[in-house]
Design goal:
309 residues; alpha/beta; Rossmann fold; four-stranded parallel sheet; two-stranded antiparallel ribbon; 15 helices; 6 strands; 42% helix; globular
Length: 309
């Protein structure tokens, strides 16, 4: 993808800014999705990936952009210049996203790219087009502990002027617990991919592990992609994908999305990138109620989440 294509993407969003709004959610097979996605569901579901395509799947705000940039740097031998060829949303299209014209949809961007492609999705496992599993595509899933994920999503919904108004923190917690946010239930999402990880060769990563030992997790991704890079290249990739480096990188920090759409004066897209920030948001009572509900919803699940490292 050329830089020109990347700039035209930003320009298109700028042009469509006047028609952007907080889009309502419409259920697709029980999962609430923004109306532009729901209204184009048939074409998304019919998408046929190439067997060489790689899927990066997450619940929103669980380390998606971080993982995308790690993968792009791995595929390009740690070359920062090549990975600055276009904004990350153009380099690795968002499969299901649809916006008002003239913004290209994820499917439009993918049509213009030869395989192998790296494709982003927030869809729960059951809504991912079946071609990914039929064609035995590789898939990387990143999961983040529920409390930190909730906090990050709350701040994202405050600044993202296309998703439903989050309302106050007190009422956002039950929305998360009840799966009434865009892309549905966090609980169903993380459990769905966990259950299918072995059947479908999904590399299941944890945000907390990536924070604790980024080099180890970069190497895990590298090995999953059947690659082998020298130690100095791995070190460079770890450095280039640190939170500080990415927060300052205009190709990944989403400053290429204009303010009427992503208002980063409300909250930056890359806000803190920490484990345990939930303690600064939950009251003791909110934490108690959340924990009781968590135990109920995750009963029988053996996913090793950590809320601190």
């Amino acid at each position: 993808m050329s830089e020109k294509r990347g700039l035209s993407y930003s320009d298109a969003i700028q042009e469509a800014g006047g028609s952007m709004s907080r889009f309502p959610l419409i259920p697709v097979r029980g999962v609430p999705l923004m109306n532009h996605i729901a209204n184009n569901w048939d074409s998304i579901w019919a998408f046929e990936p190439h067997p060489s395509d790689l899927l990066i799947a997450t619940y929103p705000k669980a380390g998606t952009t971080w993982t995308q940039e790690i993968v792009d740097l791995l595929l390009n031998n740690g070359d920062q210049e090549i990975c600055s060829r276009a904004p990350i949303a153009v380099r690795m299209p968002f499969l299901e996203i649809f916006s008002p014209p003239p913004v290209p949809s994820g499917l439009d961007l993918l049509k213009g790219m030869p395989p192998p492609r790296v494709i982003k999705t927030h869809l729960p496992f059951q809504l991912v087009p079946q071609g990914f599993w039929k064609n035995k595509c590789k898939a990387i899933y990143v999961a983040r502990n529920a409390k930190d994920n909730l906090v990050s999503y709350f701040h994202f919904d405050r600044m993202n002027q296309t998703q439903p108004e989050p309302g106050p923190w007190d009422s956002y917690i039950p929305k998360f617990m009840e799966g009434k946010l865009a892309w549905g239930s966090w609980y169903d999402h993380v459990k769905g991919y966990w259950k299918e990880r072995e059947n479908n060769n999904i590399l299941y990563l944890f945000y907390e592990d990536m924070k604790e030992n980024p080099r180890r997790e970069v190497e895990r991704i590298m090995h999953y992609l059947d690659m082998s890079l020298p130690d100095d290249v791995i070190s460079r990739i770890v450095e280039l994908t640190s939170f500080k480096a990415m927060k300052e990188n205009p190709m990944v920090n989403y400053t290429f999305i204009p303010q009427p759409v992503f208002d980063q004066t409300i909250s930056p897209f890359m806000r803190k990138g920490e484990v345990g920030d939930w303690k600064n948001h939950f009251t003791l009572e909110q934490s108690r109620v959340f924990d009781e509900d968590y135990e109920r919803q995750m009963k029988g699940s053996n996913i090793p989440f950590r809320t601190n490292i």
